[in-house]
Design a protein that fits this description.
By secondary structure, the protein is α/β, with parallel strands linked by helices. Helices cover 34% and strands 21% of the residues. The longest helix has 17 residues. It folds into two domains: 167 residues, Rossmann fold, CATH 3.40.50; 84 residues, no CATH class.
């Protein structure tokens, strides 16, 4: 039931049918009120300078946009770096240092899936989860980092930072609840808009491929994977950040008589503990060098 509702909402926001388009139109007054309240919120915020280089990677809409592989690609360029994120889907609250740049200090329940991806893929990075980004920035400064990447922080208008914004295309570009947008691109806010296949390009690799694989994934808008998929026995979608059980995965593999579960890295960090056969569809991005120049120009001007 939960899965069905989430997937219905994703369809409503990104690929609405006739009924959903009508519902979206009827909800327009609520969207205007919501969007106006977000504008008031933006206008009343005062930026705080934390005295450290901060780069935010975000998007305006709800749902997946490829922030994690982009933050990963950017962070790999820098040696003394911290990555800060809220940690959606984790079973913890408050501030946790997930990796100190040498060792992973917490398990997946504390970190959440996205933070564990960063800790695993960028072993030299300090990774911090916290609902309060300001507390996390102060912690990162305490650890002596030179640059901080904020995952999904466009809306943190009270933090002085360079904003990189992924352009997500959707036919339903109204504000919530009528459309997919959490906020507008405010005309007085300086941002750098990044477009896929221009500013960054995705690339995939398939590791431990098997003859018969069942796709099992818990990412937002999982249909985005379709163009990267090899032949699979079945596609099994769970809600974003779903916490799998071993029996869920085993039942799918037994039902399909598959040799392995085909997963993304976001799923892999949660499933590897089960010691079940996994094939990894690893999604990465290659960033155009002009984006790194934008970051370096920001840092030079700031310092």
């Amino acid at each position: 039931m939960k899965n069905s509702l989430i997937f219905w909402i994703e369809e409503y926001l990104y690929n609405p049918n006739l009924f959903q388009k009508l519902l979206s139109f009827l909800l327009l007054p609520l969207s205007w009120i919501y969007c106006f309240s977000m504008w008031i919120r933006f206008k009343t915020k005062k930026q705080e300078d934390f005295g450290v280089d901060i780069v935010s990677v975000g998007n305006l809409s709800v749902g997946g946009s490829g922030k994690t592989p982009l933050v990963t690609a950017l962070s790999l360029r820098y040696e003394n770096v911290a990555i800060i994120l809220r940690g959606y889907g984790r079973k913890s609250q408050g501030l946790y240092l997930i990796s100190d740049g040498k060792n992973i200090l917490q398990d997946i329940d504390i970190s959440g899936d996205e933070a564990m991806i960063y800790a695993t893929k960028i072993p030299h990075a300090k990774v911090i989860v916290s609902e309060d980004r300001k507390k996390a920035i102060l912690k990162a400064k305490e650890l002596g980092v030179d640059i901080i990447f904020l995952d999904d922080a466009y809306s943190k208008h009270d933090i002085k930072k360079l904003d990189l914004l992924i352009d997500v295309q959707t036919p339903n570009n109204r504000c919530l609840p009528s459309g997919a947008f959490r906020e507008r691109l405010w005309s007085s806010k300086k941002v750098v808009v990044l477009k896929e296949d221009i500013d960054f390009k995705r690339k995939t690799s398939l590791k431990d491929r098997c003859d018969k694989m069942s796709l099992i994934t818990a990412i937002a808008r999982p249909q985005r994977l379709d163009k990267y998929l090899p032949n699979v026995v079945s596609k099994n979608y769970f809600e974003d950040h779903h916490n799998f059980t071993k029996d869920e995965v085993k039942d799918i593999l037994t039902r399909d008589k598959s040799d392995s579960a085909l997963v993304t890295y976001k799923d892999y960090v949660k499933l590897e503990k089960f010691n079940l056969p996994l094939s990894l569809l690893d999604l990465e991005v290659k960033v155009d060098k002009k984006i790194f120049k934008i970051i370096e120009d920001y840092r030079a001007k700031k310092n």
